Amino acid sequence: MTEVSSIVKKQKKLFKAGKTMTHTFRNHQLQKLKDMLIRHESEIYDALKQDLNKSSYEVLMTELGFLYNEIDETMKHLKSWMAPEKVKSPTSHKGAKSLIYKQPYGVTLIISPWNYPLHLALAPLIGAVAGGNTAVIKPSEFTTNTSQLIEKMVKETFEEKYITVIQGEKEVSEALLDEPFDYIFFTGSTQVGKAVMEKASKQLIPITLELGGKSPCIVDSDAKIQIAARRIAWGKLINAGQTCVAPDYLLIHQSIKVKFIDALKKEIELMYSENPIENDDFTKIINDQHFNRLIRSLDGENVIYGGQSDQSKLKINPTLIDDVNWDSPIMQEEIFGPLLPLLTFDQLDEVVEHLEQARNPLALYYFSENIQKQDWVIKNLSFGGACINDTIMHLGNNNLPFGGIGTSGIGSYHGVYSFETFTHRKSVVKQTTAFDLSFRYPHSKIAEKVLTKIFKK
Q1: Burial class of residue 443, CB neighbours in 10 A (0-12, 13-18, 19+)
Q2: pLDDT tier at 457 (50, 70, 90 boundaries)?
Q3: Which are the contacts of 224, defined by CB distance < 8 A and separation ≥ 6?
Q4: Whole-model pTM above 0.85?
Q5: 368 — alpha (psi -120 to 50), left (phi > 0) or beta?
Q6: At 127, phi and psi to the nearest 5?
Q7: What are the angstrom distances between the C-alpha of 87 and each of 90, 91, 97, 130?
Q8: Nearest to 112, CA basis, from 157, 70, 167, 159
Q9: Which of 276, 279, 391, 403 is the most buried (most CB within 10 A)?
Q10: DSSP secondary-structure letter at 413?
Q11: Is residue 448 scored above 90 in pLDDT?
């Protein structure tokens, strides 16, 4: 891994030279990033079609559109984000100015997953560039076409000593994690996230982990059934369920279960036809390994809708599974596919016990018209982020921080929160020399009296 070490050294040299520190430089690089995406837009659509069979709608909705918005928002506000923040100084600091400066970390490593291979490689990069860092991107080896395109685009747009892409499998990631990076940003599974965090801890490298988990979708008795069914079908089946914030399982109030299931089936068919396997706009499963994992998880389960599959196309029809419990195999890990288990409840406080089985999910969705119940869910349940009467849309608002809690992640990003993730808030006191307050020194006769007055007021 001599090449890896060489690149890291070159980037450290560039960073130490101070080239990335100015607003002009960072803004110019963000514009280059946007121009790069525009220039290669047709290739991006083709690569994502080949890797995941993504429709042009999904590419624009979940990959390119988000990146364009994020770049525009960052460029619009970057100067104000970079500016030192003046904060109040206490009486004991009379004559001083207290400020917070935004310091780049330095050389950053971005490890991205396969499910949104463009979006999740470049969204963190926007924050890294805005924060004044350099970056090494390690894209997923599972999305060959998109990863190769990212490498090609970055290589022709940026100097290797500033931003570069390094491809490879597990051993390449391990070699990268042995390098003395200044910050690591990882998106992927909880299991791999633990290994990344262990590696980072050996060098005390600060880290962001964007993971996942079993995100519940709760449908209460007073939910508007048709709207809830439509929004849940949409959120679950984008990218064939291969989304870290997809509804992982349904908790339906017993009184509306039959009506809701009927409505959900109709909405699925309206979006993807009665046989989505034959629908060219329905995303495929990433590879045979994940396809087989999903098929195995259906063994012995009560499939009440869907379940058909075609391994030659790597597609599985949207599938509803009834009569599951927390001992069922399908409830043991994040599903990451178009399979949706159904559980029921009678009283809202029952959902607390369900969420204890898979604590701190990345997302939570609650459908109800009752404001008091909505507030109860928000205040009493732990999750990374949520939507009330919707799914996934919180991710698309770059004014909101996106991230998990505990097993679903550490840290957050999007918009200003990406800038904050990739910068250290450096505290500085600028003290006056025009005068010197004697009470701060131990030989002062009035020190104790003045300090008592200051601190016990």
Answers
A1: exposed
A2: low
A3: 367, 369, 389
A4: yes
A5: beta
A6: -65, -40
A7: 10, 13, 8, 23
A8: 167
A9: 391
A10: B
A11: no
Cα separation, 6 vs 4, in Å, equals: 5
Coil vs helix vs strand at 321: strand
CB 367 within 8 A of CB 338: no
- Taking the C-alpha atoms of residue 341 and residue 320, their distance in angstroms, rounded to an integer, is 6
- For residue 299, give both structure tokens: 């063994």
The residues that are catalytic are: 210
Amino acid at 211: L
| Count of CB atoms situated within 10 Å of the CB of 249 | 25
Name the token pair of 206.
Answer: 């600060």
How far apart, in whole angstroms, are the C-alpha atoms of residue 205 and residue 196? 11
Say which residue the tokens 């399908």 belong to.
330
* Rounded Cα gap, residues 311 and 72, in angstroms: 41
CA 447 to chain centre: 52
The bridge status of strand 302-305 relative to strand 319-322 is: antiparallel
* Residue 48 token pair: 């994502």
Identify the three-state secondary structure at position 40. coil
CB atoms within 10 A of CB 359: 14
Say if CB 211 and CB 409 are below 8 A apart: yes
Only one residue has tokens 């439509």, namely 230
Q: What angle do CA 246, 248, 253 make, to 5 degrees?
A: 115
Query: CA 269 to CA 305: how far, in whole Å?
Result: 11
Measure the CA–CA gap between 106 and 153, rounded to whole angstroms: 23
Contact indicator for 366, 218 with CB cutoff of 8 Å: yes
Q: How many residues does the chain have?
A: 457
228-245 pLDDT, tens digit each: 999 999 999 999 999 999
Amino acid at 278: E
Using alpha carbons, select from 236, 116, 128, 135 the residue that is nearest to residue 187.
Answer: 116
List Cα–Cα distances, 57 to 61, 233, 247, 291, in angstroms: 6, 16, 20, 23
